[in-house]
Specification:
This protein is an alpha/beta fold and about 250 residues long. The protein has eleven helices and eight strands. Helix 2 links the parallel strand 2 and strand 3. Bound molecules: 1,3-dihydroxyacetonephosphate. 1,3-dihydroxyacetonephosphate binds next to strand 8. Homodimer.
């Protein structure tokens, strides 16, 4: 079975009620390839999830940008996986580098979150990626393998995981990875999964790229054999997100 192209829009901590409605209107009016070609998931801040879910076309889906690591309870300010399930939110982004870096989420903590979210029935976009310093030190593959290992240690079924490779140096910087750089790391991740999880998961898991993806650079990236889609930040707030969705290609 081929890997269906996946395009995620991570809105991060952006948007007003009015802006969010405008983005959804643009998406709802867009002519894009069908659901059998591309899976589209947008991720507004928590407070806008019910609004976006209620307005969004039925062939697009929503994701939360985070959730609590275990069952909810006395954890002020957190949102639990159970709550997302209760609201019919099917996806959650976990391990984004902004949370790893700014909120000190460790590899192990991210692994625990992924496992708990899956156990509650959520689908997970799990993010990995190296810093510029790590890339320059030649440790890119070791870093992303270590991050993936912490997830693999806690998870037995990968059917509901999409792995997002997001080099930190490419996020919000306008400095996109070259298609060759993205392909190289995606292929290494797939190889790691082949050796450490299974051949089946390696061939079926979608590995998507994130970091300064826009309407102009998406096509060439989408053409790489191991790039199964995108996780888009800044450009997902703009009409060009539609062009990124249209770059979907059929994989193997
Ligand atoms: O972090 C990202 C998506 O999760 C990428 O952000 P940008 O597309 O703004 O670089």
């Amino acid at each position: 079975m081929g890997r269906k192209f996946f395009v995620g829009g991570n809105w991060k901590c952006n948007g007003t009620n009015e802006e969010v409605k405008k983005i959804v209107t643009t998406l709802n009016e867009a002519q894009v390839p069908g659901e059998h070609i591309v899976e589209v998931v947008v991720s507004p801040p928590f407070v806008f999830l019910p609004l976006v879910k209620s307005l969004l076309r039925p062939d697009f889906h929503v994701a939360a940008q985070n959730c609590w690591v275990r069952k909810g309870g006395a954890f002020t300010g957190e949102v639990s996986a159970e709550m997302l399930v209760n609201l019919g939110v099917p996806w959650v982004i976990l391990g984004h580098s902004e949370r790893r870096q700014l909120l000190n989420e460790s590899n192990e903590f991210v692994g625990d979150k992924v496992a708990y979210a899956l156990s509650q029935g959520l689908k997970v976009i799990a993010c990995v990626g190296e810093t510029l310093e790590q890339r320059e030190a030649g440790s890119t593959v070791a870093v992303v393998a270590e991050q993936t290992k912490a997830i693999a240690a806690k998870v037995s079924n990968w059917d509901n995981i999409v792995l997002a490779y997001e080099p930190v140096w490419a996020i919000g910087t306008g400095k996109v990875a070259t298609p060759a750089q993205a392909q190289e790391v995606h292929a290494e991740l797939r190889k790691w999964i082949h050796s450490n999880v299974s051949a089946e998961v390696a061939s079926s898991v979608r590995i998507i790229y994130g970091g300064s993806v826009n309407g102009a650079n998406c096509k060439e990236l989408a053409g790489q054999p191991d790039v199964d889609g995108f996780l888009v930040g800044g450009a997902s707030l703009k009409p060009e997100f539609v062009d990124i969705i249209k770059s979907a290609t059929v994989k193997n």
